[in-house]
Amino acid sequence: DSGVTQTPKHLITATGQRVTLRCSPRSGDLSVYWYQQSLDQGLQFLIHYYNGEERAKGNILERFSAQQFPDLHSELNLSSLELGDSALYFCASSVDPSGGPDTQYFGPGTRLTVL
Amino acid sequence: AQKVTQAQTEISVVEKEDVTLDCVYETRDTTYYLFWYKQPPSGELVFLIRRNSFDEQNEISGRYSWNFQKSTSSFNFTITASQVVDSAVYFCALSGGSGGSYIPTFGRGTSLIVHP
Prior knowledge:
The complex is a heterodimer of chains A (115) and B (116). In chain A, the strands form two sheets. In chain A, strands 2, 4, 5, 6, 9, 10 and 11 form a seven-stranded mixed sheet that branches. In chain A, strands 1-3-8-7 form a four-stranded antiparallel sheet, with no helix packed on it. Chain A is mostly beta strands. In chain A, strand 7 and strand 8 form a beta hairpin. Helices cover 0% and strands 52% of the residues of chain A. Chain B has 116 residues and is an all-beta fold. Chain B is 0% helix and 53% strand. In chain B, the strands form three sheets. In chain B, strands 2, 5, 6, 10, 11 and 12 form a six-stranded mixed sheet that branches. A four-stranded antiparallel sheet of chain B has the order 3-9-8-7, with no helix packed on it. A two-stranded antiparallel ribbon of chain B has the order 1-4. The radius of gyration of chain B is 14 Å and the shape is globular. The model of chain B has no long low-confidence stretch (mean pLDDT 92). Chain A binds chain B through residues 2, 33, 42-43, 45, 48, 50, 55-56, 58, 88, 90, 92, 97-98, 100-109, 111, and chain B through 31-33, 35, 37, 42-47, 50, 91, 95-96, 99-104, 106, 108-109.
């Protein structure tokens, strides 16, 4: 158990819908990262938040957005869902990136299925 | 740009065999970090090891060992006396660079199947 929690574990929805994935980092970790894992694209970085502020963006679609709240939990919002958004979404946390590449600890993931 | 190549897509072995998973990386950074993660069939990503570019000592942890060679830009992972529970997808990752966010680049993963 990494100490990172993600809810829900599974999510089935229809095209065009909007969903919210939630992540709670390990106690004391200030950074939260979101990744998408699909069979054809592998593990793709989406976005990074540090202590409530956005730090870096990766291959995140405009239909997707995220935020990190004062209690450091984070939410990833996916809207206007398409079939191709079906994937495993991971959240990871680390202590502090400013001191150098820090080890990221991953949550169990949310499996999103868009029908 | 950073790149991680795991050329072995899938490896199949019989229990108790030794197996080595290859990882080759590319980076222009002089300081960088390498990682290995394990993703068992249950889906979660489990951190195994982190190594910085200044530490070329090999590491052994039980049946796991890692060989880091800067000269060949490789960070290979060996499992000795493999077990069925080692069956998983293994990812190598690379972090490094300037700026406030050190985002790792992951390889495509190597699927290891250990048969009883």
